Amino acid sequence: MADLALAEPLRRSQLVEGLRSRLAEIVPTLRVIAEGVLGADSSIDFVGVEPTGRAVLILIGEEGDDLELIGRAIAQRAWVEPRMRDWIQLAPDLGLRPGAGARSVVLCPSFRYETEAAAAALGSGTVSLVRYRTVQSGGRLEILIEPVAREIARVPTPPRPVDPASPAFRTGLSHEDLGLTAEEYVAFE
Amino acid sequence: MPQKLEDVLDYFLPGAAAPASPARAMADSSEGSQRTHPPTSDWGLDASPRARAGRPAALPIIALPIGDRDVVHAAFAWNLAVEFARCGANATLLAPADPAAASLWPPSGRGPIGAELELVPATNLRELNRAALDIAVSRAADAPNGGVVLARVPPAWLNGMSEGRALLRWVLLFAATESKDLRETYGLAKRVLRAGPTPRIGITIHGVRHIDEAERAFSRLADTAQRHLGHAVVSYGLLMDDLHIYRAIVAHRPIGLEHPQSRAARALRDVARLLLEDAQGPAHG
Q: Is residue A186 part of a domain?
């Protein structure tokens, strides 16, 4: 196995070029439909579409950009979603679907706790975080990419459908836990 | 300080607990109207020589089953502790140091006017009981005017296991007036009774706008508990629905200090008085 060593950060143009060919690893079903789109006051590095018709906005940052980038990711998503119908009208074959929404993927060398917490608080399907590292492998430069698992762990689970037979009480107990008989139950009708 | 094992044995042996007087309990049940609007004059604890001479070896412990996300009842508990302290009593609120329930509490340690919040590394009822007892004994030495230890019990720990059930000798349950809340409170009472046969179960009704609402709610609970569980629950007054309560909860500030003249603060003070009165009684003092 070749020796790996962390490499100096790439120039932004090199980085974007290097990551372009790796996007399918980040979002396997992604089809890139645009690059360098001027969105909400800044550029979206890549705009792609998933088979579901959802738009995927990819933002690439450098060390220390993560907090700013998550804010931009939300802003760009808010900018893209209302424009998707226009894009579909202009280019129906893009694969975008009205109402499918958009999500963002932020790539940075590292993420602070606050960034991860913010991404988790937004819930699944809003902003995904992906860490990248540039390494020297033999004589070649390579970019390693790794989704931030913490984000997945912190994504709040969707609320379970309400089961009228066992509603949760403020104690966190269920009807079964409380063990009321039918007679006791109706005493509080 | 306790001098002999017998001084504190009562806390280790649930069967040794003196049951609440049935007459008193029934009177409490039937005196709903009286207990739901007690006098609001200034409270003075009995600091007479007789009271000082009869200083207990351990402060009474009141267990409060409160869910991990139940910020309202947790706020009541902390506010009660502050009211105890305002009354001159030693007041400690004890809770398991559970990250899942961290949002329930203000920062631990000594808070307003000496009320104290202690988060302890208990993971079950037995450990919590031990921690509560330690505090009850140690605080008794510094409590010339008496005091109370409130212990938050995760409701899931009321699972019928006998270990630690001594902690459930005196339980206070909060209940709103909705049917669902009353069922939940009743269910909790039932779980408490499963753990031990002779606990004192007190009820404080909250979220009411009129006294008769609280009286009706308490009567339903008391009647059902008597009929199906053969147990007389005790009324510990009511807490009025008041915007100040929710503001205080959000701000993690005691309502009795933020808005001392509000209806909510006065009602809270009354509940604290009722509890202190019983804490000084023969069964618990």
A: no
A82 part of a folded domain? yes
How many domains are there within chain A?
Answer: 1
Range of the domain at A87: 4-147
pTM > 0.90: yes or no: no
The whole-angstrom separation of Cα B208 and Cα B73 is: 14
A22 located within any domain: yes
- Taking only the tens place, the pLDDT of each residue in B128-149 is 999 999 999 999 988 888 899 9
Shortest CB distance from B224 goes to which of A172, A178, A187? A187
ipTM reported for the complex, 2 dp: 0.72
Which residue in B209, B206, B153 sits closest to B181, CA to CA?
B206
Query: Do B179 and B220 contact (CB within 8 A), yes or no?
Result: no
Residue in A171, A174, A176, A186 to test binding to B, most B beta-carbons within 10 Å: A171
For A138-164, how does the pLDDT look when each residue is reduced to its tens digit (9 = 90+)?
777 788 888 886 433 343 444 434 444
User: Which of B72, B155, B190 minimises the CB distance to A179?
Assistant: B190
CATH number for A100: 3.40.1350.10
β-bridge mates for residue A145, sequence order:
A132
